[in-house]
């Protein structure tokens, strides 16, 4: 159990025996929020926590990403890490505590683990970096950076930034890593106090005979395929599969007592893992020794780029396709009214989202067949990364009060679909006429590291991600970085290498940005004709009730009369949505009339709306009525109100008084009447 201020997080680790046939590490990280932690009752129908909200899913990923590379590759046991926020202090977000706690609990569980590992958040207020800022400080900060590290180096980075220069971001990561070292030392002290020794990280058990046989039989063939730089991804995969099948048949033709055949027969997964290991070794060796990638590109070269905007017709507000190599993403933008904002029911103080970025990764994008399901953690995480990259350039709510939803559909995937989503979504926003402050592009950086020999790769494709050591996504504008996400497959990187990767990403980002701007270089001057038109203005918060009326009757009447949609915020911001500008202006005229203060002695030209035995009601402003008492209808005595005025008559009146209940009393005595 970790405590910081008033925030408390309980983290547990459970290990079960390996299941037969599993050839990967089945690690499951869960983060649970309990609403009692903030003294609240869940807002769901059952008043009980149910499906985890998006922020909880992102915290699960935040725990998983630095943990997974620290377990040995040969471990096949089921491992579940569960973090539960049990008390919340707004001065300390619980997610980084969950990450650090997952390391401590794993060590206490005596699992083979290359820890300790810890995480901190870094904010930037003015010119000062701060460690673990509060929720409110994060809102004001120019940087929201989470750094996780081990004694061996940085193992994970997640960040959003307001167009910060590369050197500031590098300095922030270094600042956070120094704070991580203190938490690592504290964990080591606890282990020493409890007399818990680290579990030896034994190397993965390999069958040397199988590896040696594969190297002798197919190394040259694999090298030849990897050196055919003009091959497509599908052709390369097919040729590697043919080589694999050929050598597998060769093993079957060996004698039954041959050690290679016996080893493969006793472990059905051994041949596949050994073939993958050989392919990985040869691909990495080609990059390290020749500086050539499988598609022939230089290490710092971006794949060919193509893009188009406005490709979807009819009611789609904005659309764009962005393609880089074989990765292709279709992004769309939809503009909505304030009532379309997503209501949040989690522990974060913010209660709504007005910018939504959703990412879909269908099976056809990678040539697979599988059932379609609701978005998984990967889809949620990639959508959140693209969302974070674009938030810094969105217009202010006061200037552009729309709720914005962007959806990125991956049509074809060969690496870096999240950064393609950033690029396509930027173009879709501009196509919809959203006045973003600057276009955003992104690139994914990779790494090949063998001992002290290091190569950084720009714009990695699928095989380089699959067989490489790092996936470092960098997004930003011409001015600076807006989002970072770094995942590792090794136990840590020194700051010098991380700095080199960030600096190498800059020219790639700018090149991609220039290619995007050849298609669309600025937001369209007009919104889509199918997007709603919003009219915004402010009223005094104390007059909100007047506009809404008893039981909402007044505002409902206005919307029905003008065929508009009206939203009023707690601060008095009124937003009127309509496809008809004249109707929106009419709705505003009515609200202006309801909220305008009337003073004694003012003159109005109004219409009689009702007649009762003691007087007549006159609408002096849209939605605002006053009453003329029968005694104020004429200089002489009036027997019946109908003798003087009737419903529909237009009369000029003067405000005689406003009583202590706010009722407006009118008179026409002494008031000249037109006509």
From TrEMBL:
Ranges of residues in domain S1 motif: 601-669
Binding site for Mg(2+): 465, 471
Chief location: cytoplasm
Gene Ontology MF terms: 3'-5'-RNA exonuclease activity; magnesium ion binding; polyribonucleotide nucleotidyltransferase activity; RNA binding
Keyword field contains Nucleus: no
Cofactor(s) demanded: Mg(2+)
InterPro entries according to UniProt: ExoRNase_PH_dom1 (IPR001247), ExoRNase_PH_dom2 (IPR015847), ExoRNase_PH_dom2_sf (IPR036345), KH_dom (IPR004087), KH_dom_type_1 (IPR004088), KH_dom_type_1_sf (IPR036612), NA-bd_OB-fold (IPR012340), PNPase (IPR012162)
Enzyme kind, highest EC tier: transferase
GO biological process, one term: RNA processing
Gene3D superfamilies: GHMP Kinase, N-terminal domain, K Homology domain, type 1, Nucleic acid-binding proteins
Keywords assigned by UniProt, alphabetized: Cytoplasm, Magnesium, Metal-binding, Nucleotidyltransferase, RNA-binding, Transferase
The EC number(s) this enzyme carries: 2.7.7.8
Catalytic activity: RNA(n+1) + phosphate = RNA(n) + a ribonucleoside 5'-diphosphate
Subcellular location: Cytoplasm
Gene Ontology CC: cytosol
Known role: Involved in mRNA degradation. Catalyzes the phosphorolysis of single-stranded polyribonucleotides processively in the 3'- to 5'-direction.
PANTHER family tied to this protein: POLYRIBONUCLEOTIDE NUCLEOTIDYLTRANSFERASE, POLYRIBONUCLEOTIDE NUCLEOTIDYLTRANSFERASE 1, MITOCHONDRIAL
Entry's family note: Belongs to the polyribonucleotide nucleotidyltransferase family.
Name of this chain's protein: Polyribonucleotide nucleotidyltransferase
């Amino acid at each position: 159990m970790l405590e910081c201020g008033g925030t408390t997080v309980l983290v547990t680790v459970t290990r079960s025996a390996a299941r037969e046939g599993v050839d990967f590490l089945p690690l499951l990280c869960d983060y649970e929020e309990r609403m009692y932690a903030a003294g609240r009752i869940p807002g769901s129908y059952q008043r009980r926590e149910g499906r985890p909200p998006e922020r909880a899913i992102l915290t699960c990923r935040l725990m998983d990403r630095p943990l997974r590379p620290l377990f040995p590759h040969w471990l096949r046991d089921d491992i579940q890490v569960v973090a539960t926020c049990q008390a919340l202090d707004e001065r300390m977000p619980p997610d980084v505590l969950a990450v650090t706690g997952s390391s401590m609990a794993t060590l206490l569980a005596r699992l083979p683990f290359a820890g300790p590992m810890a995480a901190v958040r870094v904010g930037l207020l003015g010119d000062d970096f701060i460690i673990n800022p509060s929720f409110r400080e994060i809102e004001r900060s120019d940087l929201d950076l989470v750094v996780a590290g081990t004694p061996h180096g940085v193992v994970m980075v997640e960040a959003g930034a307001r167009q910060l220069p590369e050197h500031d971001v590098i300095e922030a990561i270094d600042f956070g890593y120094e704070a991580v070292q203190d938490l690592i030392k504290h964990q080591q002290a606890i282990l020493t106090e409890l007399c818990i020794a680290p579990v030896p990280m034994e190397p993965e058990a390999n069958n040397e005979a199988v590896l040696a046989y594969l190297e002798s039989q197919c190394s040259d063939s694999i090298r030849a395929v990897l050196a055919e730089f003009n091959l497509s991804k599908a052709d390369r995969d097919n040729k590697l599969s043919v080589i694999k099948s050929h050598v597998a048949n060769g093993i079957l033709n060996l004698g039954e007592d041959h050690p290679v055949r016996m080893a493969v027969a006793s472990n059905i997964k051994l041949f596949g893992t050994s073939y993958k290991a050989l392919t990985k070794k040869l691909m990495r060796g080609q990059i390290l020794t020749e500086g050539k990638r499988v598609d022939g590109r230089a290490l710092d070269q971006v794949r060919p780029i193509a893009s188009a905007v406005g490709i979807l017709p009819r009611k789609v507000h904005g659309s764009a396709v962005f393609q880089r190599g074989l990765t292709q993403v279709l992004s769309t933008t939809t503009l909505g009214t304030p009532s379309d904002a997503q209501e949040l029911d989690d522990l974060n103080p913010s209660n709504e989202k007005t910018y939504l970025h959703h990412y879909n990764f269908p099976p056809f994008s990678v040539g697979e067949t599988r059932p379609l399901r609701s978005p998984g953690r990967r889809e949620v995480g990639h959508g959140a990364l693209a969302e974070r990259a674009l938030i810094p350039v969105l217009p202010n709510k006061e200037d552009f009060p729309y709720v914005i939803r962007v959806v990125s559909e991956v049509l074809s995937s060969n690496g870096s679909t999240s950064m393609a989503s950033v690029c396509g979504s930027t173009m879709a926003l501009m196509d919809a006429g959203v006045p973003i402050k600057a276009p955003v592009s992104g690139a994914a950086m990779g790494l090949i590291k063998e001992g002290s020999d290091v190569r950084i790769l720009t714009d990695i494709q699928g095989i380089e991600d699959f067989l490489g050591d790092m996936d470092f996504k960098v997004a930003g504008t011409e001015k600076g970085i807006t989002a970072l996400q770094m995942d590792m497959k090794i136990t840590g990187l020194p700051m010098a290498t991380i700095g080199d990767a960030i600096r190498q990403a800059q020219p790639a980002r700018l090149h991609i940005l220039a290619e995007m701007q050849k298609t669309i270089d600025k937001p369209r001057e007009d919104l889509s004709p199918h997007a709603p038109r919003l009219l915004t203005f402010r009223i005094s918060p104390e007059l909100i009730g007047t506009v809404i009326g008893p039981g909402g009757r007044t505002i409902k009447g206005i919307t029905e009369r003008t065929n508009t949609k009206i939203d009023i915020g707690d601060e008095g911001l009124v937003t009127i949505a309509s496809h008809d500008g004249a109707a929106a202006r009419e709705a505003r005229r009515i609200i202006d009339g309801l909220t305008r203060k009337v003073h004694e002695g003012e003159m109005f030209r109004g219409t009689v709306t009702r007649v009762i035995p003691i007087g007549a009601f006159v609408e002096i402003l849209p939605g605002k009525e006053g009453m003329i008492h029968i005694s104020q209808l004429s200089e002489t005595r009036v027997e019946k109100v109908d003798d003087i005025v009737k419903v529909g008559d237009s009369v000029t009146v003067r405000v005689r008084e406003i009583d202590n209940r706010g009722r407006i009393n009118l008179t026409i005595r002494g008031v000249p009447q037109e006509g």
